[in-house]
Amino acid sequence: MRTGLKTLARKGFNLFCYLSLPYKGIHQYIFPNEPPNSFRIEAELYGLRSELRQRLISYNLGSLYTLPHSIATKIYKRFIDYNPGNLGNWSDDSANTYATTRFEYEVIHKMIDLSNGDQDALGGYITSGGTEGNIFAAWLGRTFLEQSYKANKICLLKTSLTHYSVRKAGTLCNIPQYLLPLNKENWNMDKEGFTSAIQSLYKDGYRGFIVPLTLGYTSTGTCDDIHTIVHEAERLKEKLKSIKFFFWIDAAFNGLVTPFLNPSFQPFLSPLIQAYVVDFHKFGLVPYPAGIILYNKHLQKMIEQPIDYLSEVDATLLGSRSGIPAVSIWAMIHSLGKNGYTRLAEEQRANKIFLIEQIRKTIPKTEVITHPSSLSCGLIFRDLPKQRLPQWIEEKYSLYPGKTKLVFFPKEEKEEVIYKCFFLPHIKKNVLEEFISDLMYEK
Fold first, then answer.
1. CB burial class (10 A; 0-12, 13-18, 19+) of residue 85?
2. Domains of the chain, with CATH numbers?
3. How far apart are CA 32 and CA 295, in angstroms?
4. Most CB atoms closer than 10 Å: which of 39, 138, 151, 303?
5. pTM above threshold 0.90
6. CA-CA distance, 58 to 425, in Å (whole number)?
7. How far apart are CA 395 and CA 404, in angstroms?
8. What is the pLDDT of residues 32-57, one digit of tens each?
9. Least confidently predicted of 7-11, 204-208, 300-304
């Protein structure tokens, strides 16, 4: 019977219609008293697998989603039965690590090396991704600044393109949030706007400033000019004396792109930058959830908590975490290495350049927003009705436009329909050529 069901599922048989018929067994909303018939459980699972297999990932140009590498998924299959847990922070002392925690230690220190950082000064842990990393960084920043100021003297600054998880982080950490304007030319944090905001907030009584800098905004691919903004902060510290900054870099996507396109990249070049957030379930080709946060190790004592029933202390946001992402990341680092990731990044940079050139030829009035070292871009189709592509093109290429509210320096507010394009490892040139052909057909 199961063999027949498997065959039907492969042929696209609508199992959900079958399962919707009245019967005694699985119910959509009721927790069962007894296990339902195993046949029906298998039917549900085969139906789910059939639905997932219908996704055309190769055409996914518009969402930050790709399939993991087969090596990374084999790690899950190989170790999931053992259900290893990595409660606590394991980046400090390799002598106290064991099993999967040893892999976490190695991954963190390999990422410190990739970032050209100080192995003795930096630590970190494996997160569930950029959102957790941003929440942790905001918590770390607030705690750091509270050593010097009362909570009502501390605020968080962001741009209108900053990832929404930063807004969530500020809300959870109960930090007042203020908007910094974007630069009209580069679509990143404006230096003059930054200076003006600090001076204004200083007059309002704020002394501690938490500032996330973005390396690759989701909607545009643009990057904050880290050196310029941090240098300006240092100048303001000298001028205003009694202020402090806590910067972190949100590089969820670009954190595994920039180091391979620019090997001299140093996120911790300035002492004002205290943390760095990277994802491995994007360009890293590791299954969800898999991210990393690196931070200055001396901050850990400010947030770590004793675990009453264990000898360890915890300096993470989630506490109990699976140890398998650590092994999966470790396996991908060693399977591809710097050369392998560099080849992937260079291939996708060439694809991005190709697409932008073709779009400018095909629809010349299209505004393209990006950054040279970013593997994403934003497209505004100014000469299309309501700046929208036909729905069939949006659906075919998983393009999800949204009306983005923007604030530019000095005081310009507007709303734009921006299409996001991500050049993840699954994107091939023939798909981009087909996309251009579809655009020309509708022109």
1. middle
2. 2-54 (no CATH), 77-334 (3.40.640.10), 346-442 (3.90.1150.10)
3. 46
4. 138
5. yes
6. 9
7. 20
8. 888 888 998 999 999 999 999 998 89
9. 7-11
